[in-house]
Amino acid sequence: MADQSTSNTQPTEYKSESKMKHIVSFVAMILLTVAAFVLVLRDVVPVAWVLPLMLGFAVIQVLLQLFTFMHLDQKGSLYYILFIAFGVMVAVISAAGIIFMP
Amino acid sequence: MGTLLIMIVFGLFFAAIFTGGYNNTLIQRARKTTAWDWLTSVDHKKIGVMYFMAGIFYFVVGGLEALFMRYQLLVPGNDAFVGRTFNELLTMHGTTMIFFAAMPLIFGLINVVMPLQIGARDVAFPFLNSLGFWLFFFGALLTNMGWIFGGAPDAGWTSYVQLALNEYSPGPGVDYYVLGLQIAGAGTTMSGINFLVTILNMRTKGMSLLRMPMFTWTSLITSVLIIFAMPPLTIALLLLMMDRLFGANFFDHVMGGSAVLWEHLFWIFGHPEVYIVVLPAFGIMSDIFSTFSKKKLFGYNSMVFATSLIGFLGFMVWVHHMFTVGLGPVSNSIFAIATMLIAIPTGIKVFNWLFTMWGGELTFPVAMKWAIGFIPTFVIGGMTGIMLAAPPADFQYQDSYFVVAHFHYVLIGGTVFALLAGAYYWWPKMFGKMLSERLGNWHFWLFFIGFHLTFFPQHFLGLFGMPRRVFTYEPNVGLEYINQVSTFGAILMGIGTIIFAWNMIQSFRSKKIAAADPWDGRSLEWATETPVPFYNFAQLPEVRGVDAFWLEKQAGNKQMTPAEPLGKIHMPSGSHIPFLMSIALFVGGWGLIARSWQIGVMGLLAFGVTMFMRSFDRDHGFYVKPKELLDKEAKS
């Protein structure tokens, strides 16, 4: 029954979060995506910079996603850490596999 | 322009009907029908039943495709299904059996049983559950539309590129595969998230993680695998869609793309996928062994550990599907060793099942027969798996019938046997009726013997050099006799399935309501009434240990001790939006397949509109009053 009672208290928790934070990070994520396309379509930076810059944008987007929309900052839980760590591990193994075994 | 106009008119027409603006009495009358009730249901038991029945349907479709292939291979030089037709049959057999039969059957059982086992009233996200089902349903429908319109996919269920690109697979065939699976895959991911959150957050009082029944544990690990394994497939299908529909060159090596990239992405998904379908099977078997041995599952903690370890290692072995690609001896050795490691947790499981039975008070209803048949069958499949995991040997087995025999031994001997066992075991909870044991015995023996007759000889077909996915063979090279035995076995499996269908029909027609606890069960699902009320538990039960219901029965209690006073119950209300969303994606997907950009964009826009409708849907469900619960109890 604990679940139902906590779900009743949750809306107040959401309200304490500012709308601005969501809108700002939403717009930032769209701009980062547009920036990635611009980098590839137009010669704004030297070719060698394109990949590192795009990776940087991607990392920022992932962090924005995790913290503003998936509430990674709200409360510490072992589950979050466990699953994020597992996800990172799977992604790193897969990416390394694809890159180093072409 | 004409199609656009027609589509707009149709869209407005349907929108009018569904919003009730056109004729309110029509929608009022529709809301009272049974069909509407099922279409809009967010009840996990109803969605589970729909998943299960859809899975049975596609199991029969995939089985027919297999029978056609076996008929073609009955004699050398047969000309019943040749060339492209045979390629379509083998592609759709694999795709259907994995994505549209095994997965929905598993999701059906998880949906019905898992919330009952953890003592929850519904899943965490009932709306998402419904959406997941309808996306799967329309995705599967879209993939199979190829049979009627323009040719089914014919590039193998793995759909390897170069072959699957426009140049070598012209026509819409592979497009049906790409878009149909993309839509169904979205539904699968949603269900995975839903099950994970449900198990982690909705357990009743006292149901700690290490008190959960084994089926719930394997569902948890399977959900994790789904969440991490489906994204690579989504990306792979997206890239293939870009290549085929919009002229991109991700996979075309002439234009600087990479064909191996597809294989990597597909198998990074594909290997965890086989654990997604086999882990719940292990869970079903564990529950059945422990119930029909009247013993606690032997080595419960090691079982949990083994399941987690299989899930963990499952992401590090995908290259064993690609040994002959030429990735080099270092890669091949690393992945060979990782693959062989998986035999250790699997072995732990097999011995735990054997020790569960040892010294138990054994009974052998049909469910237990499937479980017992599963052990030797699965062990044979696992053994050939170890043989295939050695790269030098794999170079010989590669693309031969030996591989076909291996994966049918694990997928049928593991997953299908377990699903059928689960069907017999949980049928009274799912449908409130019993399946006939007499017909069940016929089903089991025909299917079991038929299975071994079909696939055991195929090991030798492979060793004698018959390649897989080829529609004919030469006479007088020693392959005729084995192929005939194999086809004969397939027919026995077909007859077994017909008997199962007859058994289901008989059970639906019978008026006799099953007992609430027909097997003297151990976990919480048997503590509910039959038929299960839509809120599952009037009062959520308190759990005191592993095998919660068994503990209470041993303590002399007829029912679980309630963990809460009788109070009002919050339940979600049904919604027709998931159905509309899925239809919108279905139309959009079909538009893209037909290369009609207007219809494709319109489908996607309609999808956006339905998402908008959902965002501003202010329905927070309803409450069941304690008085209604008491009235109902007084009636029964």
Q: What count of domains describes the coordinates of chain A?
A: 2
Report the mean per-residue pLDDT of chain A as an integer.
79
Beta-strand segment tally of chain B: 2
Shape of chain B: globular
Description of the molecule:
- Chain A: The chain crosses the membrane at residues 23-41, 47-67, 79-101.
- Chain A: Belongs to the cytochrome c oxidase bacterial subunit 4 family.
- Chain A: Keywords: Cell membrane, Membrane, Transmembrane, Transmembrane helix.
- The complex is a heterodimer of chains A (102) and B (636).
- Chain A is mostly helical.
- Chain A has two domains: 2-71; 74-102.
- Chain A has helices at residues 2-15, 19-41, 47-69, 78-100.
- In chain A, helix 2 packs antiparallel against helix 3 (47-69).
- Chain A is flat and about 40 Å long.
- Chain A starts with a helix and ends with a helix.
- Mean pLDDT of chain A is 79; it is low at 1-14.
- Chain B is an all-alpha fold.
- Chain B has one domain: Cytochrome c oxidase-like, subunit I domain (Cytochrome C Oxidase, Chain A).
- In chain B, helix 9 packs antiparallel against helix 13 (366-389).
- Chains A and B meet through helix 1 and helix 4 of A and helix 8 and helix 9 of B.
Summarize it:
The complex is a heterodimer of chains A (102) and B (636). Chain A is mainly α and 102 residues long.
Name a few traits of the molecule.
heterodimer, A: 102 residues, mainly alpha, 2 domains, disordered N terminus, B: 636 residues, Cytochrome C Oxidase, Chain A, two-stranded antiparallel sheet, 21 helices, 2 strands, 67% helix, transmembrane (chain B), Cytochrome c oxidase subunit 1 (chain B)
